[in-house]
Amino acid sequence: MAKTNKHIIIVRSPNKRLSSMSKESGDAIFQALSKYFTKVDMVSVSGINDLKSVILLKPDLVFLGAKYIAIDPNRTIDDANKVWLSEYFDKFHIAYTGSMRPAHELEQDKPLAKLRVLESNLMTSPFYVLEPDQKFTKGNSKISFPLFIKPANRGGGLGIDSGSVVNSITQLEKKVNLIHKNLKSSVLIEKYLSGREFSVAILRKDGADDYFLMPIELIAPADKKGIRILGQRTKSLNAEEDLLVGEGIIKTKITALAIKVFKALGARDYGRIDIRLDEEGTPHFLEANLMPSLISGYGSFPKACLKNIGVDYENMILRIVSMGLSRS
After folding, report:
1. Each residue of 185-221: pLDDT tens digit?
2. Largest CA distance in the chain
3. CATH assignment of 105-124+193-325, given 3.30.750.24, 2.80.10.50, 3.30.470.20, 3.30.930.10?
């Protein structure tokens, strides 16, 4: 098979403070695309000059592996002074994979995503937010225990562990203080959902405004209390069990919620919507990931594509690229 005469640049950020694909993920994408395209490069961008260099190369497509770069590389993920890569490439009419800036902004800010979901009359658990300079008081919320505590804008399970489920003010304050201290992040406090957890991979079909909806059930190892939490350690070790969701009412409900959330966030092409059931079996939106991990055999998105529609890693990457190239 002859290679396609297109130039694709995979863009990621080396700044570990920011949300970016890992080098392992970038390498896997590079190897897959190099089989099918004449010129594939991977570029690490740390500042505006790096982005200008990408523009000068005039690629046919940028495979986005980072949502933004910080103007000051020493600042944290919360710094408002950043360049959103999708918006930057739009300015120069360079095609790229995945969603545009507004969707990525909502995805990045979990409370804002939940508000958008609520505004769309969709289900998500009750919540409130504590900023780093705020202390918890009984008047902060009327949500009853148990509660789930996590950073408001971190991915990959960062800041989530067995201490994230709290049943008292003492436990809540301890977890909130740890997140404020270690991550300098706002804290999302929400009603704990005790039911099963699902991840729904969404992939647009070629040449159509329709999507493959591909759910898998995720079962984390139980902790000492018997609680199953998909935290950073479980995700990094790839330790969760992933099961194909059979046909039935649960699959219908979670896929219906997932695609409605995906569209409410303004997402396009592909992404992952995480959902958990409450004690009565009602699906609730947890969070979105519009730039999910793309390593073969790792992460919910590639697993869901293979289990649901038999699309292997290379073909999954090629489908994502094809959608981006359709805009070039």
Report:
1. 899 999 999 999 999 999 999 877 899 999 999 998 8
2. 66
3. 3.30.470.20
